[in-house]
Each structure stands twice: as structure tokens, then as C-alpha cells.
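Quick one:
INPUT:
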């Protein structure tokens, strides 16, 4: 009779390995989510161009990348799935926005709103910096008396209307989108001189800075928060922005200045592009625009 040694019973390792792989998968997934949140919050974010206001620099259906650290400025943000909020803050030694930079920013509100009724992001090109004076005459934008340089690839349509537009910013000006200004772009520390004849020009601006309906005129005198005053000190830097397709763009001519703390970042690349009017994916793909730099 042949002797047979008893073999030790094998342990079920498959379930242990499976458990480890699930835990590892969850760990990697959590790390990836945290990394994506970090990149979207602090470094890069993708946006889709919905309108023709920036043609032909940017077309409807372009997908762009935006650098959020270009200017060292981060807007207030909330960590997704939490109630943790971080305030606006600036990092040192970063560049400042320059003329002709293409910006993504938080919409400051319709012309007469001091708090926007809708939360949207816009994309436009900087025409004027804080402290500049803007004048528009037909197809030419003048900054401090000199024509604004036209970047390569920018397309402007011929504007047909010459009449006054009641939507023009600021209220009360007999201007149109073709005959606009001169308009002063405020910068931090500037003193605005106020009286009952000029207050309509600055009412919404001041209310936006203070985020409340602070300005009133009583007895022929200007009041801010109920106190009579003849001046106001500007708290922030502001930018005047325009769409490249100026005949089809709602921009600073219609709703005013972009505050520095509304800037999200600078558009620098088109990474994908699909024509929304096409009937098939092959017809929609605009391969010549993929990885194209935004100027």
C-alpha cells in the first residue's frame, strides 16, 4: 500500500488578490479625481466656443485650453462635492494682462446690473488696460490716441448701423458701436469726480464695486450709502474687451468693464474643433484647427 503525504490545504488567494485590485483601483481613481480637480482649479481648463463673436480667431465648436495661472490670479472657487470655499488670491511674480490677450472671464452682468442675473463665462480680447482711454471710430479702435494694433488672423466685418444704440455702456451716452468714446478705463486708486450731471456714467460701476445699490442723488447732491460725496476712489483694476467679430459681439461696449478679479485665464490653444452646423462627424471635424495656437 503506497503511502501518500497529506498536502497542506491551499488558501483562497484569488479573492484576496481581487480585493487588493479593487482597493488599488479605487485608490488610483481617487488620486486621478483629485489631480483633475487640482488641474482644473489651478492650472488648465477646457472651454467650448458657442458663438461667432470671436471669428475668425475662434469659431463656434472650437474647444480651447485656458491657462489659469497666466496672471497669478485665482478666482473664488469651491471644491466639488464639498462646501469648502477658497477666496480670491494672487500669486507674486506673474505677468499682467496685456492688450490683445484673449481672456476667459466671469460675465460682470448686463449694462444696468450691479450683480449679474446669470453666471456665465465669456471670451473676448483685451483692447484697453487700466488707465487707458478708448475711442472707436468706424473700423478703428484708438487707445490713448493711437490705433490699436490688429493681431494676425483677426477678422472684422463692416458695420452697417451708424445710429445711437440705447444698449450702449455707459447709460446716457449718445454713442454707437461705430462711434464710441472717449471712455476712461478705471484703475485701482483712481479718483472719480462725481456730480449730478456725471453720476449716470458711474452709477452702475460704483454699485458693482460695492455690490449693492449704494449710489443715489438727493437734493441735487450725490450720495454713496447715504453720505454726500463728490468723489469715489476706485478699488480694482479694470479692462475693456472686444470681440474680434465686432459686428456680432456683445462686449464692453454694451455691458462695461471686466474687473481683474473676474479674469479666469488666458486662452492659448485650440485642441479640437467640430463644426456644429455639419451633418456628420467626418464633415464636422476641422483638422486644420487642431492644436492651433490662439493669438
Amino acid at each position: 500500500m503506497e503511502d501518500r503525504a497529506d498536502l497542506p490545504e491551499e488558501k483562497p488567494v484569488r479573492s484576496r488578490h481581487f480585493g487588493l485590485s479593487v482597493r488599488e483601483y479605487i485608490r488610483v481613481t481617487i488620486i486621478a479625481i483629485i489631480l483633475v480637480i487640482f488641474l482644473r482649479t489651478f492650472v488648465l481648463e477646457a472651454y467650448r466656443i458657442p458663438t461667432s463673436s470671436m471669428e475668425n480667431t475662434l469659431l463656434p465648436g472650437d474647444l480651447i485650453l485656458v491657462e489659469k495661472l497666466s496672471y497669478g490670479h485665482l478666482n473664488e472657487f469651491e471644491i466639488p462635492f464639498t462646501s469648502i470655499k477658497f477666496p480670491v488670491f494672487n500669486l507674486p511674480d506673474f505677468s499682467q494682462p496685456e492688450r490683445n490677450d484673449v481672456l476667459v472671464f466671469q460675465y460682470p452682468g448686463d449694462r444696468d446690473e450691479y450683480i449679474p442675473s446669470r453666471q456665465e463665462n465669456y471670451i473676448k480680447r483685451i483692447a484697453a488696460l487700466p488707465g487707458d482711454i478708448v475711442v472707436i471710430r468706424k473700423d478703428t479702435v484708438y487707445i490713448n490716441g493711437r490705433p490699436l494694433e490688429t493681431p494676425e488672423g483677426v477678422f472684422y466685418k463692416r458695420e452697417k448701423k451708424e445710429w445711437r444704440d440705447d444698449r450702449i455702456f455707459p447709460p446716457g451716452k449718445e454713442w454707437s458701436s461705430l462711434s464710441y468714446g472717449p471712455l476712461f478705463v478705471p484703475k485701482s486708486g483712481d479718483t472719480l469726480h462725481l456730480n449730478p450731471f456725471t453720476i449716470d456714467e458711474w452709477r452702475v460701476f460704483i454699485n458693482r464695486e460695492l455690490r449693492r445699490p449704494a449710489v443715489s442723488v438727493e437734493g441735487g447732491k450725490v450720495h454713496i450709502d447715504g453720505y454726500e460725496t463728490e468723489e469715489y476712489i476706485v478699488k480694482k483694476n479694470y479692462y475693456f474687451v472686444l470681440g474680434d467679430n465686432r459686428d456680432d459681439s456683445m462686449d464692453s461696449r454694451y455691458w462695461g468693464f471686466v474687473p481683474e478679479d473676474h479674469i479666469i485665464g488666458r486662452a492659448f490653444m485650440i485642441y479640437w474643433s467640430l463644426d456644429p452646423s455639419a451633418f456628420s462627424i467626418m464633415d464636422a471635424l476641422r483638422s486644420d484647427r487642431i492644436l492651433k495656437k490662439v493669438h
